[in-house]
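Colleagues,

Please find the record for the two-part complex below.
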Amino acid sequence: MKKHGFSIWNLMRLSLGVMVICGLLYPLAVTAVGQGLFNKQADGSLVYNSEGKVIGSELIGQSFDEPGYFHSRVSSINYDAAGSGSPNYAPSNPNLIERTIQDTERWSEQNPEVSIEDLPNDLVTNSASGLDPHISPEAALSQVPRVAEFTGINEKTLENLIETHTQEPSMGIFGSPGVNVLMLNLAIDEKRTP
Amino acid sequence: MVIAFLSVIFTLLIVGVTLKPFGLYMAHVFENHPTKLDKVFLPVEKLFYKIAGLKTEQQTWRSYVMALLLTNTVMILIVYAIFRLQGILPLNPTEITGMDPTLAFNTAISFMTNTNLQHYSGESGLSLLSQMIGILFMMFAAPATALAVAIAFIRGIGGKPIGNFFQDFVRAIVRVLLPVSILFGVIFIALGMPQTLHTIITANTLSGEEQTILRGPVGSFLSIKEFGNNGGGFYGVNSAHPFENPNGLTNLLQILLMFLLPASLPFTYGKMVGNKKQGNVLFASMATIFVLFLTISMISEFQGNPVLNETGIEHSEGSMEGKEVRLGTAQSTLYALTTTASETGAVNTMHDTLTPITGMLALGNMMLNTVFGGVGAGFMNILMYAMIAVFIAGLMVGRTPEFLGKKIEGKEMKLLALTLLIHPFLILGASAFALFTPLGSDGISNPGFHGLSQVFYEYASSAGNNGSGFEGLGDATPFWNISTGIVMYIGRYFSMVTLLAVAGSLVSKKVVPTTKGSFRTDQPLFGGILVGTIFIVGALTFFPGLVLGPVAEYLTLK
């Protein structure tokens, strides 16, 4: 090692230096700045109820079964945010076809007024994370008749709510529009209990 | 559809305008020119040298190789120990136990080799301490190593002294990786990523259930994850997780960061060897392959899955299985192609669920390992192909091939051919072995032809130091941990050593004066020959495998 001009001891010290500066000081410094300047985001964009209790995060989807709520996308982990994941079905996997057909049939039973030609495929496919907070605006609109029936809120009001809770693509073009299901359902709760 | 294509074109334009200035900045850094920011940078660099007790005199290529191999090996051993002991070390709020030996072996190699293949899940496999001084540490050390080696290689073939590994390594961290990571880390938090050391919070959901939400220092992790072409996720599903990629803008910036280092290196090269035109030709050739692959993939994803489309549901948004609504089909496809081209391995969509043709082109990016490629390592491969292209063109016209005025002769060609062959040998050899034994084939989760693609993808990702996966594969077993660990290690260091040897051999050669008969390597014609060489030499090797995997799957879906 001598002829190369360094020893293993030097290398261990170099590793330690990088470990402390890049592994510890760097994230701690960014944490200090992030917490100071952008506290809400840094804490996970949490959503609180009127009593100040955490009811979720704006960014993390939740599972909704009740007919009076808008439903989220399919999630094989049932929106358990202690983990994340999807079943990783290949396009040719028979389980994918079977699951989609089942979900489509169940959707038709729950939304008899809407034809399946108006059911966008994001609603019956598993998201990548299993925690997708959004559905497409079309997927929200396809649920309006059902939610109107069970909540007594008229369809026009619901359509307006969908519009206000749609996150447009960044700068108008980057990404796709998505309706935040948790925030939309919160708004429905407010309308229901004035 | 039109807006989707426009958004992709705008993204690439934004990326495009940043590359050249950044490439020139890097040339500035590694030619050791003084800058206004030296007041900030120099003391930090000196601190590193002081901690390590190292000097920065010139090295021979052999000493340079020894320094890089031993530094990385020492780091692997230290991080292996941290992973094994994480259960009894501090900063472990979720009470995670020590990692299993083969998994720790795999993970330590994975992050040191810039691969970031993850056979564990971030949420349940690593303590906060391991995420910081294990993973984050290596996310800086790995790209710094590769960048240093690429710069040494460029100096060598440009006929300059090869430099000092430790100096290049430290300058890469202090002047390139850290400043950009800090800046983007803060931007990412502003755009919605969490950044806190209080990880767990329990929410009482609207439906009256309990939801455990895991947070962490995500912003600082994400910037170096993408910028260093690392790609390992803080969470199991990587940049598909809403905390790791909250909106279209974070997605755009991640794509920018993935391209920034590998795609600006041709410009660094052009500046450092004094042949800017050649740098431009290399860049344009790779960009052409990228755009070709991307266009085909976009069409494929927007057509969706024919079998699902037949059920009659609305599918104008493209194939949505394994994708996130806020990111959409266009930006997800662009991300998939970017992450495989730049050998980053971050994913915002589940690659297993991609339509067969897109899956094949993602796989193709990693098999070629040269459509920009990972930071440093990829650019060395581009130059390797360029020299092989010169050699083939030379054979056709019966002249001794020259590159940058230096003769490419028997010794260099032997080293280049070895480097060229090791990549397919690793991928195809390891895949054949895995398919041969139930230890490997039991991991396949998708039936039919796609199963073969899963195995191919895993080893192509390992050998190319990418790190993404067809994640359905049950790869958290000792067989997969050990086999991919070995493939990652050889895939990383074999070519670094052989190519530095080529540089070491070229550095002492005399420059042959350019004559009318010299084959010009800074013209579009050469770009054409280069792309042709990559397809004929690189792609044909894998063609039978691709026919049996993705192509066969595509035909069965019709």
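The two ends of chain A are 78 Å apart (CA to CA).

Comments are welcome before we finalize the supplementary table.
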